[in-house]
Amino acid sequence: QRMQSEGRGSPGLGGVKHVVIVLSGKGGVGKSTVSAQVALTLAAMGKKTGLLDVDLCGPSAVRVLGLEGKEVMQSSQGWVPVYADASQRLAVLSIAFLLKSTEDAVVWRGPKKNSMIKQFLQDVMWGELDYLIIDTPPGTSDEQISTIEFLKSSGVNLDGGLIVTTPQAVSVADVRKEISFCKKLDVKVLGVVENMSGFVCPCCEEVTDIFSRGGGEALAKELNLLFLGRIPIDPRLAQAEDAGKSMIEEHADSAVVKVLKGLVEQLVAITND
Asked: What pLDDT does residue 10 have?
C-alpha cells in the first residue's frame, strides 16, 4: 500500500466528486449497516468509493467489511486508507484501524474528536473517488457538526445527508430532529431510508411486517422528502456482516440487495442531476 500511494496526488478531498453523509437522530437504526451496504453497492456498480467512519466511540465499519487486523499505512504525503477489495474500488478509514485492541474504548472530549475528524478528511490520501460515504454516530453533536463544517470550509461538494430511520414512531420522532439539524446547517436531505422494515423469512423469503411499517415513508411524504426505500430484516445480512462478507456478492438475488440497488441507483441519479 505504501507503493500504491505514490502518484495519488495531494491528501484530502480534492479528488472526490460526491460526498454523502449518513445521519440519524436515533441509535440502533442500522445506520452503519446502511452506510457499509451503500458503499459496497456503489463499488459493485463500478464507482470508486470511500467509506469514512466518524463514529469515533463506536466504530463498526471495519468489522462489517471484514477488515479487522488491517492497518492504515503512512506515506510521505499522509495516511493511506485500507482497501476492502483487490480492485481498490472501496477505500475505508476508521479509528478502529488505529486502536491496539478491538476492546479499547475511545474516551475523548469534543476538541480531540474534532481534531481527529479534521485529520481524517484533510490528511488522508483519498485519491480520485466518485463517492465518499461518511458514517456518523447518532445525534446532532460534535462529530456531525465538525464533519459538516470542515467539508463546507474546504469547498468540498457535500451533496447532502441520507437519513436512516426504523418504522417505529419513537425512531421517527428522533429523526425529525436530525432533519431539523440538516436545515439549520444548510445540508440538503437527499432522502429517507426505512431500515428494518419487515422480516424476510429464511425459508420462503416472504416479507412479514413484524414491527410497524411505513413510518419513514410517512415522514418523507409529510416533509416533502424523497423516500428511497424499505430495507427488510434479513438474517443473512447479519450473518454476512458478522463474517465480514459482502451481502451483494453472497446473496445477489435477495430482497435486501434488490432494495439496496434501487436505493443506490436513486442516489446516483440525485447526486448527478
From this structure: 59
Which residue in 217, 127, 165 sits closest to 28, CA to CA?
A: 165
Ramachandran angles phi, psi of 105, nearest 5°: -90, 145
pLDDT digits 0-9 by tens, 123-170:
999 999 999 999 999 988 889 999 999 999 888 889 999 999 999 999
Q: How far is CA 137 from CA 140, 142, 192, 225, in A?
A: 9, 10, 17, 22
Q: How far apart are CA 120 and CA 113, in angstroms?
A: 11
Please report the pLDDT score of residue 33 as a whole number.
96
Instruction: Cell 481524517: give the residue.
Output: 120
Q: Where is 62: in which H helix or E strand?
A: helix 61-64
The whole-angstrom separation of Cα 237 and Cα 223 is 30
The one-letter amino acid code at 213 reads R
Count of positions (residues) in the chain: 273
Is-contact 55 28, C-beta < 8 A? Answer: no
pTM exceeding 0.85: yes
Q: Which residue has the cell 428511497?
A: 228
| 81 secondary structure, DSSP code | P
How many CB atoms neighbour CB 168 within 10 A? 16
The dihedral region occupied by 30, where left means phi > 0, alpha psi between -120 and 50, and beta the remainder, is: left
